[in-house]
Amino acid sequence: MKRFLKNEDGQSLVEFALVLPVLLLLLCAIIDFGWLYYNQITLNNAAREGARYAVIHYDPSTDWRAETEERMIGSMVGIRSATAIVSDPVAQQITATVTSDTPILTGFTSTILGKRTMELHATCTMRLEN
Question: Where are the domains of the chain?
């Protein structure tokens, strides 16, 4: 009778079953955070590249804006929109803005957040060189 009361064969399996969802959520959150952080850095670089291109090639008589936007969109797969504007004509600054819909990789995290994509933005302002 004592042997029956001390039988703990399934205890570790039950504990693992209780802890597994938390561990999976943590792992998926780490993966998605790293993915979104990588994409944010890439967007920052695309905005910086576009702003730099615009301040070097700025010419009001040409279509510099379309060339700059095309360059920013081409620098990263998945960029939804890119704009380049002369934000302050007096100070002669150009602002490049990039927007992207980045998919969330793991289905577990997207179920918790309720979204399949995250909208990321990056902006860079540089002064005209001429």
Answer: 10-127
